[in-house]
Design brief:
This is Aconitate hydratase mitochondrial. The protein has 308 residues and is an alpha/beta fold. The protein is built from 8 helices and 9 strands.
């Protein structure tokens, strides 16, 4: 539900809304907000569609039969079913070699997302494999980072060759000092981020960025190949025997509770008059603002017109 609400706007939805349900209540309680869950429970008759409501269009989606898709490149609107993606890669001349797989950021980095990805990484490790592509993980928050460290998912992802980045937007919004491929080189990456416009992630207009679920991204990093279908294709383990990934699994909520992580907020001092803000005199990004001259109390005259 959170992913749909986050990504609906990416493809033109004005808003996305779900009626209140027990899963929301469970999440509020797990994140130390039981009082909000109690209020919502008592008002849940108002937190849903009115009885007899009519809509211009109703589309029913059966999640049990919905096939995973991969979106892109260069737009979130271009969606290809996983079973047809290999064919699309060859037909369109997209680079089949997968250079980098990236999971996390704000959209698909819940505890369950990380746990499901870690279950795939664990299975690969059990067969003696590590990620063939560069594999990066961006926890969506300090709480998620601390909790997956507490429960062992981070250890598994690291052991499989993953690199855990800071709890920040990072490559999702272009904060990626990419070094593996020279700018201008045609290449492919796959992410679980929410945007894949041209040059969005690494400022390289030749990077073909595809979007998929965290578990699809994770599985593909072990193949290093965009034509790999983790639902039916096999990899060769360290023992020389082929294996196919099992369906990913992970708890929706952490069984041991969320770990809030490190408290990084620093409150401002009560006596602000004693604070000196220091900015490097050689900085070309930051500068202290000088206060405007005090108004002399008279009407201003002969002012330049800035806009009419």
């Amino acid at each position: 539900m959170a992913t749909i609400c986050n990504m609906g706007a990416e493809i033109g939805a004005t808003t996305s809304l779900f009626p209140y349900n027990s899963r929301m209540s469970d999440y509020l309680k797990a994140t130390t907000r039981p009082y909000i869950a109690e209020w919502a429970d008592s008002f849940q008759h108002n937190l849903k569609a009115d009885a007899g409501a009519h809509y211009d269009q109703v589309i029913e989606i059966d999640l049990n039969t919905l096939e995973p898709h991969i979106n892109g490149p260069f737009t979130p609107d271009l969606a290809t079913p996983l079973s047809k993606f290999k064919e699309a890669v060859h037909a369109n001349g997209w680079p089949a070699k997968l250079e980098v797989g990236l999971i996390g950021s704000c959209t698909n980095s819940s505890y369950e997302d990380m746990a499901r990805s870690a279950s795939i990484a664990r299975e690969a490790l059990d067969h003696g494999l590590k990620a063939k592509s560069i594999f990066t993980i961006t926890p969506g928050s300090e709480q998620i980072r601390a909790t997956i460290e507490q429960d062992g998912q981070m250890e598994t992802l690291n052991a499989a060759g993953g690199i855990v980045l800071a709890n920040a937007c990072g490559p999702c919004i272009g904060q990626w000092d990419r070094q593996d491929v020279p700018k201008g080189t045609k290449n492919s990456i796959i992410t679980s981020y929410n945007r894949n416009f041209t040059g969005r992630n690494d400022a390289n207009p030749m990077t073909h960025a595809f979007v998929a679920s965290p578990e699809i991204v994770t599985a593909m990093t072990f193949a290093g190949d965009l034509t790999f279908d983790p639902t039916k294709d096999t990899l060769i383990g360290a023992d020389g025997k082929p294996f196919k990934f099992s369906a990913p699994n992970g708890n929706e909520l952490p069984p041991n509770g969320y770990n809030p992580g490190e408290e990084t907020y620093q409150a401002p001092p009560k006596e602000k008059g004693d604070v000196t803000v220091k900015v490097s005199p050689t900085s070309n990004r930051l500068q202290l603002l000088e206060p405007f001259a005090k108004w002399n109390g008279k009407d201003m005259e002969d002012m330049p017109i800035l806009i009419k």
